[in-house]
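During data preparation, a discrete fold description was generated, as reproduced here:
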Amino acid sequence: MDLRRIRGYLQLCRPANLPTAAADILAGLAIAGILAPDQIEALGYHGFALVLVSLAGGSKLLYAGGVVLNDVFDAELDKIERPERPIPSGLIPKGHAALFGGVLLLSGIGLVSISHAFSVWIAVMLGVAILIYDGIAKQHALFGPLFMGICRGLNLWMGMYMMGFTEALPFIWIPVVYIFAITSVSRGEVDAGNRKQIILAGILYAIAILGVAFMIGTHGSQFWWGVPFLGIFATMVYLPLIKAYRSNTAGHVRAAVKGGVLGLVVMDAAWAAGFAGWIPGILVMSLLPLSGYLSKRFAVT
């Protein structure tokens, strides 16, 4: 396989986005570590390391599989809107990409299954939600953003795997709202003309930021360590969003989407800092330069 084709497969996986999936897991573990400390302590050092590797690795594989299959389903549309992408350009055959995405998705579920019996069911739900989004829901103005948000909410829950749905629900609605906002904006990244979606995104971003602040204030133990991260988060997502509203061109809309996607790392850092202190927050935040570096070499959307 030549280097161009290898790069094509990497491009299908959206490498810049993969650290954001791992960041969700780290944030979820930080939340669970405070709310279910006995279960985390019972794992021991080696058990916790195994859980961390299996969940973070499985999450990235699931994300990669989802975006690869997304391009498979979009192959005909991309021939018109994005002919330079690996599948419509002919660099990667559509059938090969479909097989690649399916293997990534199943491998992600398999890797997650190493960590805990319950976590694999969350991974299966996530895999199903990914397929529903890729194959059906994304065509719908409401259900597309909603299912994309559900995928991100399930990913955070996977990091909180020892907590049941009722316990996790007060947390996982926040990434659902936030991703709904990003996905709504992304619908105008080709032709722009989406100022209404940008206004909606601005409102939903505010709800998500206030939601994180409320949860770390009422359930976390390190509220003030989370505040600086929330400030960085707000700055990172709102500045490109405002520019996209003022100059509603495809380039500015893509920049707003990119800021929203990479901002996920900072939101997760706020979760980690607000629940477990500044050191976990910085550790999660350290994924941001990696995402930024990869975003200069591979498309985020």
Remarks:
- Residues 3-295 form one domain.
- The mean pLDDT is 92.
- The CA atoms of residues 118 and 161 lie 7 Å apart.
